[in-house]
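>> received
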Amino acid sequence: MKKKIILPFLAIIALSSCNVNIEKVITSTTPILLTDDVNQDLAYLRNIASSYNKDESLSFYNYFTNALNLPIYNDNTILYNNKVYKIEGQDISFKEDYLKLNYSNEEDDILALNTKNYQISDIVYIKNLDTAYEIVDDNMGLDIALETEFYARPIAYKGVINGKALGLIPNIDNSQTFINIFNSLKNYNITTLILDGEAYLCNNRISLNNQSDFTILGNNSTILVNDSYNDSTYGEFFFNITGCTNILFSKFNITYDMKRSIDGIKTQLGVHSSKNIEIKDSNYLIPDTVLTINNKDREFTNMDLYSNWENVIISNCSFTNLCDSEAGGSLWIRDFWQKGSKNCKVLNSNFYKIAHDEILAVFSPGKIDNVLIKGNNFTIPDDGTSSSVMNFTLGTGNQHSNISFEDNKIDACSTGGLIWSKGQNVVIKNNDMKIHLSSKGTGNFRAIEAQATSDGKINYIEEFSGNRISVDSYLDSYKFQVHILHNVKNVKNNEITINLDSTDVMLNVNNISNNKIITNKYINYVLYNVSGQINENQITINSLIGTIFRYYGQNLNDSILITRNNIKYLYEEGESSSCWIMLNGMSMMGYSIDFIENDFFAMSLNSQSRTLFYAPEDNEVQTSKFMGNCTTGLNIKNNYLKNCEIQYE
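>> returned
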């Protein structure tokens, strides 16, 4: 006989008011229908099934179990309204009425097993835990030691079991219990763990290691970390998913509730060397009580896809980081150990952060391919002692590719900019962006910018389209440069409103079409070194400008066509002056910058304001066209042309 260990939760289990039957949990989380008629139930279930979108979930089973908040048993059935339904592919069919299992041996609580003469292999149903137990003579990890010479082994019904049956108890430290459960999944044939909406204190690191085909239906349960956390040794990640495949966390939350300085903890959830990981409807909270005012050097992050992951979906989750530290964010997407990572989707989630680093970042030395950030809400206020330099990093080098940022809503402040990118094939489209220069800003601000990689190459943002953006400042005055769009290949169908003094609206941007641009503050250069085709844009300028089209310091490598644009300059200049186009300090190289069939209007120009200023540095005289334009209010004859001839008709 093996030596027994009397588990400390035994008495607590017996006394706790559990009253949770697996079947009752299942039915209580679904809508009450008007009838138990099978056809009506089938219509409801099939309607849910028909809404499955393979682009938003890793599998139909993941989608269906999360949508209904029901486990799928290992015989591919679900229990709904006391009926059993079969799942085949994406088809749902009625199988049979549910008949609750009858046990010859039943007890009110687990302690009763100590008073009865049960023998090995007896099966006993424990009513207050709503779970059957087998009497055994050894412990596989989750068995309950009895006062007799035996153990009570919990039985997972078709792979499904409730957490309390395994010893999870609110308001005590459950770290070791979670560890034991996660290490024993295969021994007990557990595929789904159902929690009951409690807060489970955990003050030691926990890990899900080398497991597959496992679901946690959390029912909005929370793992809580408080001041009693064991920080005697440093562990960057509180909860690790490592070496796992086919994992679903549904409505399973993590909250830090520390009010003292803790050194041995950083990130709430880390994913390492794992594949097919889906996290849905879960909340990650780091409150402002985590850091004292004297410990801003600590770093706390909600979630980190750390290295060597594949096929990760995070959807309908909430990330809140209020720690106001000098480092840390909400979601890191990276490949730290350079083993390669790919295929991540962040969908329909809410992010709120007060901390120095980005709210979301795709970075690291390792290769990352195919990241989709879609349908999320991001909020970063100008609170706290610290502020983000940039809010988003979309790649830090050529090793990061195919990053899409779509349909998001952003209200964010920073000292340096909203989105900085060095990745390849970055697409930013259909977002609502409220961009604020932080009151803590002290240097140049670049709202959307593709930056040079370590080899000096600039991976231009591939597309910036369909976005609605407004830019303003929490600073009353500043001397540094402000750029709105910098290094973008294609800018189309955007609505852009500028409410802060800026150096330029677009710098080094190619192909600008069908945009609506409104400027309400001073703009030095509206469009600076833009190229390709600039067509069918509506630009309304309500403030003083220096120049609308500025070309300087960058030789042409192709001709530029500016056509069918509507530009209204509604500022009364007074003693100030402006220029419609200014080109100098560069060579045209035999190419041209042509204005064709545009509608230009100026309300009141200074007499010194110019329309055309061409002074290329080529050895030969260059040419361009200015034809078919409507030039109401412009000083069309007040031009400066040097080494360039303009064809007007």
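>> The longest helix spans residues 38-50.
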